[in-house]
Amino acid sequence: MISVENLQKSFTIHHLNKILPALQGISLDVPEGSFLGIVGKSGSGKSTILKSIYRTYESQAGKILFQSEAFGTIDLVQATPREVVYLRKHEIGYVSQFLNVMPRTTALELVEQSLLDLGVSKQEATLRAQEALKHFDIDEALWNSYPNMFSGGEKLRLNIACAVVKEPRLLLLDEPTASLDQSSKLKVREAIEKLKVNGTTLIGIFHDLEFMEGLCDSIFHMSKMQEKELV
What we know:
By secondary structure, this protein is an alpha/beta fold. The protein has a single domain, classed as P-loop containing nucleotide triphosphate hydrolases (Rossmann fold, 3-Layer(aba) Sandwich). It contains 7 helices and 10 strands. The chain has helices at about 45-55, 80-90, 105-115, 120-135, 150-165, 180-195, 210; strands at about 1-15, 20-30, 35-40, 60-70, 70-75, 90-95, 170-175, 200-205, 220, 225-230. The protein has a 6-stranded mixed β-sheet with strand order 6-7-8-3-9-10, sandwiched between helices. α3 crosses α4 and α3 runs parallel beside α5. The longest helix is centred in the C-terminal third of the chain and has 16 residues, at about 180-195. It is globular, with a radius of gyration of 18 Å. Mean pLDDT is about 90; it is low at about 225-230.
């Protein structure tokens, strides 16, 4: 599904005239329908890998070969902005710890829009959005409210709902359970397990190693720069 080859990324601190290396020679492979977990200490570059795949960051060197349904094998490092926008709408999802809300858009409308982008009818989008909000225990009284007033946990659950409702071919998870209680974590786990059954490929970062237990098919250790199969 996705193969990262010798990926390199650095950041330029202009006012200090310095270049800070973030990723140096990262290579990994994720088979279709599997879940790769990335572990490592803070600052080791875990999130940078996901943001490079999602093209939030542009890499300086290397390849990210994605088996796209629309474009065939495409190098995400070289993909055009138009191709990136299409892939984000239709094939690749991303969940971070933070929710970027659209102004004057309710929680229900945010989840609905994720489905409308795929060409789902308004009626079906509403029904599926309501199901997703219920699954992640977002109070029905909040569905027609603006998320900028939500708590951190509510925003995170809404963010996850917007991503998983689309059932993307590839889903990137950047600490999606960071501020959630145990009950909410179980809801996230249920959603991930359902996506796996339906064929979604996943790459995730979790500091909660217990959460990853039995969920990931393989682990990539940033400190060792190598992937290990779980037994």
